[in-house]
Design brief:
Residues 31-96 form the Acyl-CoA thioester hydrolase/bile acid-CoA amino acid N-acetyltransferase domain. InterPro entries: AB_hydrolase_fold, Acyl-CoA_thioEstase_long-chain, BAAT_C, Thio_Ohase/aa_AcTrfase, Thio_Ohase/BAAT_N. The active site is at residues 221, 302, 336. This protein has two domains: 2-122, Sandwich (Immunoglobulin-like); 129-385, Alpha/Beta hydrolase fold, catalytic domain (Rossmann fold), CATH 3.40.50. It has five helices and 22 strands. The chain has helices at 164-171, 195-205, 222-233, 307-320, 364-385, and strands at 2-5, 19-23, 27-29, 35-39, 46-54, 60-68, 75-76, 84-85, 100-107, 113-122, 129-135, 138-144, 151-158, 175-180, 210-220, 237-243, 259-260, 266-267, 293-299, 326-331, 348-351, 356-359. The strands form five sheets. It has an eight-stranded mixed sheet with strand order 11-12-14-13-15-16-19-20, sandwiched between helices. Strands 1, 3, 5, 6, 8, 9 and 10 form a seven-stranded mixed sheet that branches. The chain has a three-stranded antiparallel sheet with strand order 2-4-7, with no helix packed on it. It is globular. The chain starts with a strand and ends in a 7-residue tail after the last helix.
Length: 392
């Protein structure tokens, strides 16, 4: 819920002339840019916009921003910079958290609620189907768009239980299979076999709604080196998106290089060695053997590991073998967890491999820009390299 108000506790009464608009709709997809505008205010009136959301566990999330209306009595978050609040500058989605968000406009002088509205942000659009698949040697979750297609297919290699990226891609016209990298066992990082991912690729290619002759593969962090391995050793892969990944899956981190901080978090960026020495050469995935197109994306403020250095190593390897089937993009100020756009910023979190809470890095505004730009780039990249034809 979003409210426009003053700094004080909200009053019950709302102004009849103040309007709070949320476009394109009060119900939209999670990755839609929401246009927030307030009209009917007095010229130069100071107001506070408050946003609150409650997740499925009952935890509350809140944000606020103070604005001064223009001479026509309007506040437009796509145009106006904050005077104070949870974020600074012009950020159209700066107030937002996921799921159901309540907005209100509150008069700064007396705390009266002037207008309020609720925006529901959805992961699955109307007609998108979710199906658990357990067969042919793998377990995954399949998302299919409405209609018969044909649609391009994407294999999403996930390092966490979230299905948001896969569901949102299905809304945009992709058949997406998300397959977890890790299981729930303690030895989850010991061995990863490509057979299950090969089976998932073949399942997608045989699906009645899929029209692409090859599938796309996408991975973030540890999911990336698996994606690179699938592209290098499994037939049927036409495009790969690598997000903040590394290319030496067999190298183990040096935990002695993790730095304990006074906050209780750990800095682990230097724990993973860069595979430049002769002794590490055989640990690198031979991506030059792949026929797929690659999109390498790296965050310049990644504190999980040196994503830019890993990306540069991958680019150099491709060039050394005379390959030009890749694009490389780096994002200044972005941290490790490049999620779908308009997601809450994650500066830190629990590391499933290191078993400790770590810094992910990133500056909120720059990170948000990177997520929005990369999400558009991923869709353009897959559409370009995964051509669809109707099946006979």
């Amino acid at each position: 819920r979003v409210r426009v108000s003053e700094h004080r506790v909200s009053a019950q009464k709302m102004s009849s002339r103040v309007r709070l608009s949320l476009l394109p709709s009060i119900r939209c997809m999670f990755d839609d840019l929401l246009k927030i505008r307030v009209t009917g205010l007095s010229s130069q009136q100071d107001v506070v916009l408050r946003a609150s959301a409650t997740d499925e566990k009952g935890s509350n999330f809140n944000s606020w921003a103070e604005f001064r209306a223009d001479h026509s009595g309007q506040v437009d978050l796509s145009r106006d910079a904050t005077l104070n609040g949870s974020y600074s500058g012009v950020q159209p989605m700066g107030l937002l958290c996921p799921h159901m968000v309540h907005f209100s406009v509150v008069n700064k002088q007396d705390g009266q609620i002037l207008a309020q509205e609720t925006n529901e942000r959805c992961i699955l659009g109307d007609g998108v189907q979710r199906q658990t698949v357990t067969e042919q040697g793998f377990t995954g979750v399949l998302f299919t768009p409405p209609g018969s297609g044909p649609f391009p297919a994407v294999l999403n290699l996930s390092t966490s239980p979230t299905e948001k990226r896969a569901g949102l891609l299905a809304n945009r016209g992709f058949v997406v299979m998300t397959v977890p990298i890790f299981n729930r066992k303690a030895d989850q990082t010991e061995r990863l076999h490509l057979d299950q991912y090969e089976a998932a690729v073949q399942y997608l290619l045989q699906h009645s709604k899929v029209g692409s002759a090859e599938v796309g593969v996408m991975g973030l962090s540890k999911g990336t080196d698996v994606a690179l391995s699938v592209a290098s050793f499994v037939r049927g892969v036409g495009a790969v998106v690598s997000i903040n990944g590394c290319n030496p899956p067999a190298l183990r981190p040096d935990l002695s290089k993790c730095i304990a901080l006074s906050s209780g978090l750990y800095m682990v960026k230097n724990a993973m060695p860069i595979p430049t020495s002769a002794e590490h050469r055989d640990t690198v995935v031979p991506i030059e053997k792949a026929s797929a197109q690659f999109l390498f994306a790296a965050s310049e403020d990644d504190l999980n590991w040196d994503s830019v250095a890993f990306m540069e190593q991958m680019v150099e390897r491709m060039k050394h073998h005379g390959r030009n089937n890749f694009e490389a993009i780096s994002y200044p100020g972005a941290g490790h967890i490049l999620d779908t756009p308009f997601s809450p910023f994650e500066a830190s979190g629990f590391h499933g491999v290191f078993k400790m809470s770590v810094l992910w890095g990133g500056e909120p505004a720059a990170h948000a820009r990177a997520e929005e730009q990369l999400w558009k780039k991923i869709q353009e990249f897959f559409r370009k390299h995964l051509r669809c034809e109707a099946k006979l």
